[in-house]
Amino acid sequence: GENVEQHPSTLSVQEGDSAVIKCTYSDSASNYFPWYKQELGKRPQLIIDIRSNVGEKKDQRIAVTLNKTAKHFSLHITETQPEDSAVYFCAASRGGSQGNLIFGKGTKLSVKP
Amino acid sequence: SAVISQKPSRDICQRGTSLTIQCQVDSQVTMMFWYRQQPGQSLTLIATANQGSEATYESGFVIDKFPISRPNLTFSTLTVSNMSPEDSSIYLCSAPGSIRADTQYFGPGTRLTVL
Question: What percent of chain B has pLDDT over 90?
Answer without folding.
Answer: 82
